[in-house]
Amino acid sequence: MKIYVCVKQIPDPNTVVSKLDPNTKRLVRSGVSLVLDPGDESTISAAIKLRDTVGNSEVVAVSMGPASAQEAMRRALAMGVDRAILVTDPALAGSDALGTARVLAAILQKESPDLVFCSTESTDGYTGMVPGGIAEFLNLPQLTFAREINVEGAKAIIKRVTLTGYQTVECPLPAVVTIASGSFEAIYPTMKGIMSAKKKPFTQLTLADLAIDPSQVGEAGAREHVATIGKAEARAAGQIIKDDGNSAQAIADFLQRYQLL
Amino acid sequence: MENLETPFDADKQLIIAEVRRFVDREVIPVAHQLEHDDNYPIELIEKLKQLGIFSATIPEAYGGLGFDFTTYVQVVEELSRGWMSLAGIVNTHVLVAYMIAAQGTEEQRQRFLPLLAEGDKRGGLCISEANAGSDVQAITMTAVRDGEDYIINGAKLWVTNGVHAGIFAVLVRTDPNAQPAHRGMSVFLVEKGTPGLTVSRTFEKLGYKGVETAELVFDAVRVPAVQLLGGSEGAGFKHAMSGLEVGRINVAARAVGLAQAAFNDAIRYAQQRATFGKPIAQHQAIQLKLADMATKIEAARLLLQKAARKKDRGERCDLEAGMAKLFASEMCQEVTLDALRIHGGFGYTKEFNVERYYRDAPFMLVGEGTSEIQRLVIARQLLEQYKI
Hints:
The complex is a heterodimer. By secondary structure, chain A is an alpha/beta fold. Chain A has a single domain, classed as Rossmann fold, CATH 3.40.50.620. Chain A has helices at residues 38-54, 69-79, 97-111, 130-138, 191-197, 218-221, 247-257; strands at residues 2-6, 9-11, 34-36, 58-64, 83-87, 115-119, 142-152, 155-161, 166-172, 175-179, 202-205. By secondary structure, chain B is of the alpha+beta class. Chain B has 3 domains: 10-118, Orthogonal Bundle (Butyryl-Coa Dehydrogenase, subunit A, domain 1); 123-234, Butyryl-CoA Dehydrogenase, subunit A, domain 2 (Beta Barrel); 238-385, Butyryl-CoA Dehydrogenase, subunit A, domain 3 (Up-down Bundle). Chain B has 10 helices and 9 strands. Chain B has helices spanning 10-37, 42-51, 69-82, 84-103, 106-118, 236-272, 284-312, 318-347, 354-366, 371-385, and strands at residues 123-126, 142-146, 149-160, 167-173, 185-191, 197-202, 213-224, 274-275, 278-279. In chain B, strand 2 and strand 3 form a beta hairpin.
């Protein structure tokens, strides 16, 4: 079975305070520490777990990004991914979710995957639109918010996280599956894994290799335009309940208001 | 002029970064509790095993990763930044593995190193005794030949990993009449579970908690002659001293990591805590401390790296290891105290980690040879070098 994981390099959410460029209205990515999206680490772990359960399978990490994204791919390889494919091209700068999905789908088209794993959303842009775009371009069914994934015969079966619990959902392979955040504990690359990562196949492609017209991607092909950016409203102060003998009732009322009781 | 920048390849940088990430995510959040409860960190050890820490310095031919010491000391520094005790568990293991790799027979390497590399069996080093610490030649434990075996009798003290180690390297006297005494010493490799080998007690300590420091009793422990390190009698003192060079480099690395942790906490706190209308970091009294702390840490790190590089080149490095250990451990004591002072009254409470750093620091002053012994080693080498 061929399992593909779409991954992204992002500003390190643990050390970088995200800043938006007021002119381009985009996230500032230069001059900051960049890492493999921690959400993708968990998605990669889900893929590796499935690979090791199913047997006779491989996990391939796929990404689109600048040359610096090689580091994120090496980390994916160190974690236990079998090979990696990165598309780098100057014409990709400024791509929106549609453009990104188009490029990732073009790679996957050539690879004939059985399963394509994506995190539900990236930890920087949070659009959550790329997985759906990939499924659409490839004309594949999409299962979303998976917290557990199994393969039986030619079917993918997932437990899909809902507000109140989970649904069991299945679809025929090949399929795109998005992983619910926090469902799989990220595995650490072992020291051996890090040292053997550089010996694993790592393919770097350009738009020409994928026969994509540059006008369909990057700034030129973007259909999504950020109109304005602004500061999020400061969180309102919490409500303090003083215990005058009725605090238990006050807490119960509060919880009921939010349908938590 | 030697290049003081550490030469690094990309893999090593990634490995150090990964250990740093591991320490930040897995060690620091639990170290405080484990230390105060004096609990052996079983889960962390399991994770360190998976990460590959126990195989780091073992040659690749025997299932290890073959790291040089220059890389290894940075791994130790990171571990110690999270919790010094963890670095101690790794240290004795690495010493035993090093002694087997460097001095063992081919059969001993093939038998023991893969077990140590997997991390399921960890190493423990038995040198000191109740009446023999700095004066190693005063040990009284004996091994007497009996056919194809040796019979070991005596007791060893201050054995780190004494309860949880699987393979011990034990310094004994095989010729009690040898003059000088060190010519009659040998090292044996003894597996846990060998009849007659028991842990008689463990010590409660000021710091360095979580990891056990034990007394081991050898009561007529029968060990096959093939477990005599290197296969011949009389080289044990040299083997142990060569291991101690690595141990001293390790303790220096632990001191640098611990001091770095104290400095990190202090410089953060100094910017949060305000007195007289401004953060204390804006007072010169605190700034002078911070500058001295960082400068001393950096100086110790460079001494440490120089010693590690010399060891990597296979050269004798007792002078450099001694200097690194002496300077780093004394520096660590000063820096952890300064970090405590910067925290004021809070630093004296168990609410803050500086209290732990301050209790852990003195271990480095006495472990793997006291500062006084380091000075003697250094002076002896200097008088040799500068002989008129």
